[in-house]
UniProtKB/TrEMBL annotation:
InterPro entries: GOLIM4. This is Golgi integral membrane protein 4. The keyword Coiled coil applies. GO terms for cellular component: Golgi membrane. Residues 56-108 form a coiled coil. Residues 1-20 are annotated as: Disordered. It comes from the Eukaryota. The keyword Acetylation does not apply. Keywords: Coiled coil.
Length: 138
């Protein structure tokens, strides 16, 4: 009975050892696969991070370039606005001056026309008198 009991215990122990060995191998395989999956995921994450980081640098540089362009364009715009204002003032002054000259010239011409009309009247009168004297003399 003891021998049989001992024999069953040894078989049971051998069976337990086999199952333990199998479980240990399965665990090592699982651990290795999990470690590989973790490493692959870590590598993928690092690659994504690198790509995003370089894209961020590119976008940051583009942003800086656009900011510089905006500043340059604002300065150019302000400069052109100032030039425009000066040109407008100059043209307004020139226009006012030309308007004044025109008004003065028109006034002078009207005055000259008035004087010429007066002179014409006097000449007509003188002509009429000369004509009358000629007729009288004849």
């Amino acid at each position: 009975v003891v021998y049989e009991h001992r024999s069953r215990l040894e078989r049971s122990l051998q069976k337990e050892r086999g199952e333990h060995k199998k479980t240990k191998e399965d665990f090592l395989v699982y651990k290795l696969e999990a470690q590989e999956a973790l490493n692959k995921e870590k590598q993928d994450s690092m690659n994504r991070y690198g790509a995003l980081s370089s894209q961020h640098k590119i976008l940051k540089n583009q942003h800086e370039d656009v900011k510089k362009q905006l500043l340059d364009l604002q300065l150019q715009h302000n400069s052109l606005k100032l030039e425009h204002r000066k040109a407008l003032e100059t043209h307004s002054q020139k226009y006012a001056q030309l308007q004044q000259e025109k008004d003065s010239e028109v006034a002078n011409l009207q005055d000259t026309v008035f004087k010429l009309r007066e002179e014409s009247k006097l000449l007509r009168k003188a002509h009429q008198e000369v004509h009358s004297q000629l007729l009288s003399a004849q």
